Structure formats: structure tokens, C-alpha cells
């Protein structure tokens, strides 16, 4: 299984748990520092890790969600990030061609949803969750609260329900920092 995430998560929850259990073959992420197991598996050759700068990662996911095949960026030119990637010359400037990212299944977390999957996020959860929802063939939304249709303020909805296939109510997570 290939996992795409901002990071490797924590060893005991979310994608971090899948990584820690050895269920992932590849991870595409901006960093793995919050999950020491991911680093260990990477060094042992048991987990392939493709690092992508955070902004580039978000843009690759967004591109996948809107049907674009790739993006161009100058981030990574002249660094290890360009290894194995196509380059293009536009307006006399060199760029990396980064492939768009899509997923068979996307999992997002939201504060509130109605039965149609319209999602409201809390704080920074609205950064990449909407992009992830768009880029999945099947999107699962784990939400803190499911409310009746019509109870959401339409001005607060960030992800329309057309991008969500399944809504489940969260049972909460008992987690702690990996270094505790």
C-alpha cells in the first residue's frame, strides 16, 4: 500500500499505525520526524519514502483532485529533490515536473458534517483535508459530530458533500507524542 500524507503520523494512530504495523510499502510525505518507526523502516529498506516539500505536496494533491497530470515548480532545483524527475524550461527558467497525486481511498478528518458529507473543519484541518477529499476516488470523512441536513451554516462549509462518499462519527483518539 502507498500512503500519502503531510507526515508519517504518530506510531499509534492514523497512517502512523499502518506504517508501524508494516502495512505500507511506500510513503509520500513532507517529513517523517513524528514517527521514529517510519525512519527505522526507511533505513532498513522496508519502507520506501518519497519526500516532497509541504507546499509542493499540497499542490500535487490539488492537481490530482482537479484532474491535472502534473505541476511545475522551481522548489528542489539543484538539490536531491530533483533526482529522477523530469525538468522543463519555461520562460528561460528551469522547473521540476512533479506528478499529480490521487488515491483510491482518501481519509479526512472534520469537525462537523451533515448526512450528505458537507464538511466543516476546525483550525488547520482546513489546510489540506479539502484537497485530499478531492483527490480520492472514494473519500471517507471521520467527523466529530454529524448533524441533521440543514443544520450547517452554508458559509462555513469548506468541502461540499459531492467529494465525500462515507461519513463516520469519530470515537476520539487517545494519543500522545511519539517521544513521550
TrEMBL record:
Signal peptide: none annotated. It comes from the Bacteria. Keywords: Transferase. InterPro entries: 3-oxoacid_CoA-transf_A, CoA_trans_fam_I, NagB/RpiA_transferase-like. Its EC number is 2.8.3.8. The keyword Iron does not apply. SMART domains: CoA_trans. GO terms for molecular function: acetate CoA-transferase activity. The keyword Glycosyltransferase does not apply. This is Acetate CoA-transferase subunit alpha.
Amino acid at each position: 500500500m502507498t500512503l500519502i500524507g503531510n507526515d508519517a503520523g504518530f506510531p499509534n494512530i492514523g497512517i502512523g499505525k499502518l506504517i508501524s504495523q508494516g502495512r505500507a510499502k511506500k510513503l509520500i510525505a513532507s517529513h517523517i520526524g513524528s514517527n521514529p518507526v517510519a525512519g527505522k523502516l526507511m533505513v532498513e529498506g522496508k519502507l520506501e519514502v518519497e519526500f516532497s516539500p509541504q507546499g509542493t505536496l499540497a499542490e500535487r494533491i490539488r492537481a490530482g483532485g482537479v484532474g491535472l497530470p502534473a505541476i511545475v515548480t522551481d522548489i528542489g532545483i539543484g538539490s536531491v529533490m530533483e533526482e529522477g524527475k523530469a525538468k522543463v524550461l519555461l520562460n528561460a527558467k528551469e522547473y521540476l515536473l512533479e506528478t499529480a497525486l490521487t488515491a483510491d481511498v482518501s481519509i479526512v478528518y472534520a469537525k462537523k458534517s451533515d448526512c450528505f458529507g458537507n464538511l466543516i473543519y476546525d483550525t488547520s484541518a482546513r489546510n489540506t483535508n479539502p484537497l485530499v477529499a478531492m483527490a480520492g476516488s472514494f473519500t471517507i470523512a471521520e467527523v466529530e459530530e454529524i448533524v441533521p441536513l440543514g443544520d450547517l451554516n452554508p458559509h462555513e462549509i469548506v468541502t461540499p458533500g459531492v467529494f465525500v462518499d462515507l461519513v463516520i462519527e469519530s470515537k476520539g483518539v487517545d494519543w500522545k507524542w511519539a517521544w513521550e
